[in-house]
């Protein structure tokens, strides 16, 4: 009897393999790619450079952009930031050597490896061989009617014909000026000066500044509808294209770009160039070079300490002592600055890493306190023993996690916005079809707050995986967890994680299963093969419907699991519609009954 029961079971179980061999689609975020120029259908001549301006965006960060011509990659530009940029604008060029129609594709790749394309068609014509060269005057016959009138004297001395008519002597016409064509239009620019932010300027992380270059139009045609475009390095600006003022030949223009210093320490350089209305780059490259020093990097003093002044008397004169910002986030820097101090023999800075350190005046120091710190500058007149003192306090805010964005969670999805430590947003409950709101405050990587639907209750979310997942609860005990789009759920969230499962197999009474959940799609392995399926919501449960496949042979079949929406330790289920298959974890017992 047992053999009779085991045989059909083994035959069925051996089928757990087929589905896993099939590729499982994973939902991923993809970049958005926009080709700004040239427009599709543009015409070029063989040998001409085609400059492609594109902007790719992705909240997960764009790590590289490739230029592909007719299916062949001709150039690939990596992001200057290792983790990618939310917006990556780039200029890429290709020389059109072959006549005909060509497909140009820009492909962007994000930090998760997902790609997206945007394409245009251009047409390339053969060179005609007629080049714009200097015009050469060629002697040709000139119709008589076009000749200038002959002098009277020349007519008198002209020979007569038999009928007495004077035949005018053909006198070469006086040399006339050949019409001069204007010289071909040539665009060019020359760097004049840095109006603001000279190269090497030091900034604290995230500092906002405005870069202005002064340039001269040293070409022979006016700049009309021209642009300043980012071409390489670190962009530091919200966009990669800015308008250039209309400028006549010989004139100068101030080109201004609002920028923000990167959040990480190190040297940064961005290169920009002017682009004409036809999309061609020209002129001197314009650079912005800044440095974001680490807290351990001292800023060289700009002045030497003043010598002791023997003639000071009484109290030192008034001076100023200030900070570039009264409040920073942990890890950021701030600059302390002070004016010249007179009627004093010395000045001393105290607080943080300074212990009554003698300093020059005027002067400054860049500091990065780890906690709220008070700094004091004291001026001393040794002759009188009197002092004058000023203090500033730098408030240091603890780093807070970033909950802003779109999330997929164990019973739906939610969209959150964040302003400093304050978070608000909305969520959708796919289990009951309802919608609600969320509000809370972030401390460190933890969001504590409330949700509101019909009633309100507490929530607590804790970020993990570099801010791409969260684990948490509502009401203190009900599971609420998830991940950003395209990212696997954290372990033990919904179906994600390791399970001990039971099904009718005497050889594997405690079959181990490892599952990964991305959104509502689940893939994984079990002791004899692979599983895959998708989640729907029914009867207060996350219903996983899919297939199993046995690795050793071609057997496969169906599966259905039922996991309660707000718990995560037990699921009931079946395979092939009639046989037990259930699971448990985290110290929970096997559910009873197993089959559902």
Overall description:
The protein is mainly beta. Among the domains are: 32-125, Immunoglobulin-like (Sandwich); 190-292, Immunoglobulin-like; 321-397, Immunoglobulin-like; 405-484, no CATH class. The strands form seven sheets. An eight-stranded antiparallel beta barrel has the order 24-25-26-27-28-29-30-32. An eight-stranded antiparallel beta barrel has the order 33-34-35-36-37-38-39-40. A hairpin with a 4-residue loop joins strand 26 (422-429) and strand 27. The longest helix has 12 residues, at 2-13. The radius of gyration is 38 Å and the shape is flat. The two termini are 25 Å apart. Residues 1-27, 130-178 and 296-310 have low confidence and may be disordered.
Q: What is the compact description of this entry?
A:
The chain has 596 residues and is mainly beta.
Shape: flat
Tally of individual helices: 2
Task: State the share of residues found in helices, binned by percent.
Answer: under 10%
Rg, nearest Å: 38 Å
Please state how the strands of the largest beta sheet are arranged side by side: 24-25-26-27-28-29-30-32
């Amino acid at each position: 009897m047992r053999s009779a029961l085991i045989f059909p079971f083994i035959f069925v179980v051996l089928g757990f393999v087929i589905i896993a061999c099939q590729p499982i689609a994973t939902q991923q975020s993809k970049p958005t790619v926009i080709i700004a120029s040239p427009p599709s259908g543009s015409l070029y001549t063989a040998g001409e450079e085609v400059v492609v301006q594109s902007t790719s965006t992705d909240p997960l960060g764009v790590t590289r952009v490739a230029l592909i011509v007719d299916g062949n990659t001709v150039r690939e530009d990596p992001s200057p930031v290792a983790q990618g940029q939310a917006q990556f604008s780039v200029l890429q060029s290709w020389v059109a050597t072959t006549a005909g129609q060509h497909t140009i594709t820009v492909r962007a790749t994000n930090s998760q490896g997902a790609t997206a394309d945007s394409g245009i068609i251009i047409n390339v014509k053969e060179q005609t061989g007629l080049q714009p060269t200097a015009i050469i005057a060629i002697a040709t016959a000139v119709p008589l009617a076009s000749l200038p009138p002959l002098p009277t004297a020349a007519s008198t001395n002209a020979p007569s014909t038999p009928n007495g008519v004077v035949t005018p002597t053909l006198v070469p016409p006086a040399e006339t000026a050949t019409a001069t064509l204007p010289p071909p239009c040539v665009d060019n620019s020359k760097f004049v000066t840095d109006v603001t932010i000279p190269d090497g300027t030091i900034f604290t992380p995230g500092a906002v500044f405005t870069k202005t270059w002064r340039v001269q139009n040293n070409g022979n045609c006016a700049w009309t509808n021209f642009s300043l475009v980012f071409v390489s390095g670190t962009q530091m600006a919200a966009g990669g294209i800015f308008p250039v003022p209309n400028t006549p030949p010989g004139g100068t223009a101030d080109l201004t770009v609002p920028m923000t210093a990167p959040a990480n320490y190190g040297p940064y350089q961005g290169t920009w160039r002017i682009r004409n209305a036809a999309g061609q780059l020209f002129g001197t490259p314009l650079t912005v070079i800044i440095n974001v020093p680490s807290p351990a990097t001292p800023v060289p003093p700009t002045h030497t300490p003043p010598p002791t002044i023997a003639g000071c008397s009484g109290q030192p004169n008034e001076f100023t002592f200030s900070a570039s910002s009264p409040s920073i986030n942990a890890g950021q820097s701030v600059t302390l600055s002070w004016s010249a101090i007179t009627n004093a023999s010395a000045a001393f800075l105290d607080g943080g890493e300074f212990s009554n350190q003698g300093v020059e005046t005027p002067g400054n120091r860049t500091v990065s306190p780890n906690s709220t710190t008070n700094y004091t500058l004291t001026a001393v007149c040794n002759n009188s023993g009197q002092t004058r003192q000023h203090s500033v306090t730098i408030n240091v805010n603890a780093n807070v996690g970033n909950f802003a964005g779109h999330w997929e969670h164990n019973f739906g999805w939610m969209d959150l916005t964040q302003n400093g430590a304050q978070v608000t947003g909305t969520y959708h409950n796919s289990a009951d079809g309802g919608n609600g709101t969320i509000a809370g405050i972030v401390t460190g990587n933890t969001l504590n707050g409330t949700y509101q639907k019909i009633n309100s209750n507490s929530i607590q979310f804790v970020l993990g995986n570099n801010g791409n997942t969260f684990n948490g609860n509502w009401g203190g005990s009900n599971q609420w967890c998830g991940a950003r789009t395209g990212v696997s759920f954290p372990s033990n969230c919904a179906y994600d994680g390791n399970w001990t499962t039971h099904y009718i197999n005497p050889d594997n009474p405690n079959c181990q299963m490892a599952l990964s959940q991305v959104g509502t799609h689940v893939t994984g392995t079990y002791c004899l093969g692979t599983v895959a399926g998708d989640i729907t919501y029914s009867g207060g449960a996350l219903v996983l419907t899919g297939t199993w496949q046995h690795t050793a042979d071609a057997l496969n079949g169906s599966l259905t699991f039922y996991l309660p929406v707000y718990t995560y330790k037990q699921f009931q289920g079946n395979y092939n519609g009639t046989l037990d298959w259930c699971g448990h974890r985290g110290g929970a017992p096997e559910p009873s009954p197993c089959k559902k």
